[in-house]
Structure formats: structure tokens, C-alpha cells
TrEMBL record, chains A, B:
Protein name: Metalloregulator ArsR/SmtB family transcription factor
Domain of life: Bacteria
GO molecular function: DNA binding; DNA-binding transcription factor activity
InterPro entries, alphabetized: ArsR-like_HTH, HTH_ArsR_DNA-bd_dom, HTH_MetalResp_TranReg, WH-like_DNA-bd_sf, WH_DNA-bd_sf
Taxon lineage: Bacteria, Bacillati, Bacillota, Bacilli, Bacillales
Length: 120, 120
DNA sequence: AAGGAATATTCCTGTCAATGAATATAAAAA
DNA sequence: TTTTTATATTCATTGACAGGAATATTCCTT
């Protein structure tokens, strides 16, 4: 219960941290697209495209709609919202304590003195 | 020149897409911290901590301040701003074409007809 | 029903990156 | 100057994961 909440879903990040997958995500800005179209536009082989799309779907970044033979992939809003709030929470923190570095240095100095080994 | 701008720096993402590094970043919400303190609090060995900190620094997520013996690491605002604008650009796009899926389906149908192989 | 198109899955292989252990470097303390 | 503290770096090992090739599956077309 002592919330050590990582907050951000790691699968989202690791899914995006791969060039081809990032390219897919960027491509899908243009709207929903079939596997074949994605593979063509990005110069990927169909199986690799499918694999990357699976990773992206599993992580919740994309969703699929089966249309007969085709599978149409499109972006999902949720993970981007999650990323957004995560980033914002950091921006807030950084505004506050923007440069407590000097405070921290003084803390360090004090600790030194409190555990002072010199015989005074 | 034909701007195929990935926009988002991949090193930022891949740096964050590793649990220990994410933990470090989360920990540094509390403010700047030395290597030893980070290692202790996260139960990491010092060398591993240093290595992860190097990755985070190289990617621009952290910056170091050398203070005598110690190295004090702290968060940098810039990569979070970059992430923020990247995410926002997506949110805008998704608001617009939120569900052009049906449009796309009709496009598909049309293409089928235009490249119709039946003898008319 | 047969053939073909679109997509997914499996298996293998190579590569990269995280880990552990040991060691190097730098500064502080004695 | 020797020792100790704090941190970085090197090297070898290992595990995860992306790519390639082949194949399975599903649906459409004829």
C-alpha cells in the first residue's frame, strides 16, 4: 500500500523505443491503415510489420479492427494521455524545486559535520 | 530535406524504457542526489548505478554536478518538454480525426472498385 | 472447391544491452 | 604519504529481442 507507484506504464515506453515502431506510430498520424499499407509505406516486410503491430497493440498504443481480409490499425488516445500526465507531474516537480541543488549541498555539508570523525 | 522528422528523440525513450533507470528518474523527483544515495535507496550496486546514470546523462535526461568526491545528479527539464510537445501533437491529431475509420473503410471500398478486375 | 490475397505465427540466428566482478581514478582523511 | 571514500570503467557472460525465412490461417474470388 505504501504507494511506490511507478506511474508510467513501461510497456508503452519500450514499445515506442524502437525505430520501426516509432515510425509506425508516426505514420498512423495520417489515420487508420492496413498492415499491408503500413508495410509498404515503411519498406517493411509484412511479417515484421505484423510483429511490431502486435507489440504496439499489446501495449495498448494501437487497436485493430478486423475488416474481412484486412486488419486496420489505428492509434489509441489513452496511452498518450497517460504519458501526458506523467510528464506533467514531472514538470510540476521541476518548477517547484527547480534548483534546490544548493540546498542539497548544504544538507550534505551538515551530514558531514554530524558524523564528524575528527576528535573535536 | 523532405522532412521525415521523427520529432521525438529516441534516446530519451530508450533511456526511460528500462526499469532501473525509470526508478532513478522517479527517485530524483525528490531532488538532486549523489550516486551512492541513489544506489542505496534503490538497492543497486554502485557500478550499475553509475552505468545507468551515464545512459541517462548521455540522453540529456540528467545532468551532473561534480562536488569534490561526489557527483550529484539531477533532472533536466528539456527532455520532458520535448516529450510533452510530442505527445501534444498526437493528442491534437487524434482529436481531429478521432474516428475517421469509417471514412477509411469507404476509401478502401472505392479503391477496390477502381482497380476492379472484373470485366465491367 | 481451388487459387490467391492479406495477415499472423513459428523457428532460427545474430546482436545488443544489462549484469556481475574486478579494477581504475580521484579526492578526502588520517 | 598511506589509507579510505566515492565514483567510473573495463571485461566477460548472459538474456531479450529484432530480423529473416518459411508456413499457417482466414477470407475473398473465380
Amino acid at each position: 500500500m505504501s504507494g511506490k507507484n511507478p506511474g508510467m506504464d513501461m510497456t508503452t515506453l519500450s514499445a515506442l523505443a524502437e525505430p520501426n515502431r516509432m515510425n509506425i506510430v508516426e505514420l498512423l498520424r495520417d489515420g487508420p491503415m492496413t498492415v499491408g499499407e503500413i508495410a509498404n509505406r515503411l519498406g517493411l516486410r509484412q511479417p515484421q510489420a505484423s510483429k511490431h503491430l502486435k507489440v504496439l497493440s499489446d501495449s495498448g498504443i494501437l487497436e485493430v479492427k478486423a475488416e474481412a481480409n484486412r486488419r486496420i490499425y489505428k492509434l489509441r488516445a489513452e496511452p498518450f494521455q497517460a504519458l501526458d500526465s506523467w510528464v506533467k507531474s514531472f514538470q510540476r516537480v521541476m518548477e517547484d524545486r527547480f534548483d534546490n541543488l544548493e540546498d542539497y549541498l548544504r544538507e550534505l555539508q551538515n551530514k558531514e559535520k554530524s558524523q564528524d570523525h575528527s576528535n573535536g
